[in-house]
Write a structure and sequence with these properties.
heterodimer, A: 102 residues, mainly alpha, 75% helix, extended, B: 240 residues, 14 helices, 74% helix, globular, disordered N terminus
Chain lengths: 102, 240
């Protein structure tokens, strides 16, 4: 039951914030500063998420095979590889490094 | 006649529709397939098949879903676990702000479009030069990702026991690789790079200190901080 409560609260909360963003009147975004800020916020959020999912294990920071995988993804991106190949590089290299016992 | 059709889908100062669709499908398929990793992780964390599928169908924002099952597996109470997932989902409100202006959706459509307002659809739509291509990018990414994410969630949950340890397969690196691929094209100028660097420092530095989900939100402050510092510096140069 506890799990269903958590799922229900998450469903309602996550949908509400998605909808709230879409419903804010357009005029609010006309100011140049707000426009700049709205463009930069995803940059900040994606950067923080990438770093956390690469280096976090729960609430501790670790350096493991994921870092090698994400580094491989970065190289693939630099070489202008297609999206699927970038993700595949990360998965394959991570699995490879783990298989070697690192 | 053949020439006409060849040029028919190239719009004034936009990209050919086919190119937008191809990019959108690339993102939708790649990220959609990573629903498999979520299905396996969720089932491995002790959630039932129905619970796992309900999350992908109704929450549909990957980072929040991963955060929720992680917190539940760690024994967190339902409200703390949901709060962490919610805080991670708050960023979608910022994407919605940008998208509502860009897509100019009719009011009646917004409640339906809202479910698709996530990192990937925002990144594809925002990368387009015209409203038409942004709308195509949003719909194609949203539809392909939603369908595949839910299908692969189901497959992952069903196959969780057969697969064993997802980490051994490297599936836990798919998430950050996806985020990195979405982020890279946004790092055009020094301002963007400064924001990203500060966000990484805040996101990692605060992780051991703050409750799950909060460090990412605090990291979002990197955007106003960098803008403020840049504004001050330009102001000083203007005074001289």
């Amino acid at each position: 039951m506890n799990v269903w409560i958590a799922i229900g609260v998450t469903v309602v909360g996550c949908y509400a914030v998605k909808l709230a963003g879409l419903l804010v009147p357009g005029g609010v975004l006309e100011r140049p500063l707000v426009k700049r800020l709205a463009a930069l916020l995803p940059v900040a959020l994606l950067a923080a998420l990438t770093a956390q999912q690469t280096f976090a294990d729960g609430r501790t920071l670790v350096l493991d095979a994921r870092a090698a995988g994400v580094a491989a993804a970065a190289v693939a991106l630099f070489l202008r590889a297609p999206f699927l190949l970038v993700v595949a590089a990360a998965v394959v290299v991570t699995a490879g490094v783990r298989a070697m016992g690192a | 006649m053949a020439e006409q059709t060849a040029f028919a889908d190239i719009r004034a100062d936009g990209r050919p529709d086919a190119a937008v669709v191809r990019d959108a499908l690339g993102v939708g398929v790649a990220v959609g397939l990573s629903g498999f990793a979520f299905g396996v992780t969720s089932a491995g964390s002790g959630l039932s098949l129905w619970q796992t599928c309900a999350l992908s169908l109704l929450v549909f924002t990957g980072a929040s879903q991963f955060a929720l099952v992680g917190a539940l597996a760690a024994g967190g109470n339902p409200f703390t676990a949901a709060a962490g997932a919610f805080f991670l989902g708050v960023r979608n409100a910022f994407y919605g702000l940008r998208l509502s202006q860009l897509l100019a959706l009719p009011r009646a459509v917004r409640p339906f479009a809202a479910q698709w307002v996530i990192d990937e659809t925002a990144a594809v739509a925002l990368a387009q030069p015209t409203r038409r291509s942004a709308r195509i990018g949003f719909v194609v990414t949203g539809l392909s990702l939603y369908v595949l994410w839910n299908l692969t969630t189901l497959l992952g949950a069903l196959g969780a026991e057969a697969i064993g340890d997802t980490a051994a397969w490297g599936l836990d690196a798919a998430g950050p690789a996806v985020f990195l691929a979405l982020l890279a094209p946004m790092l055009r100028s020094g301002t963007e790079r400064a924001v990203a660097a500060l966000a990484v420092i805040l996101g990692l530095g605060l992780l051991p200190v703050l409750p799950a989900g909060l460090p990412v939100l605090v990291a979002a402050l990197a955007a106003p901080v960098v803008l403020w510092v840049r504004g001050r510096r330009e102001g000083q140069e203007g005074d001289r």
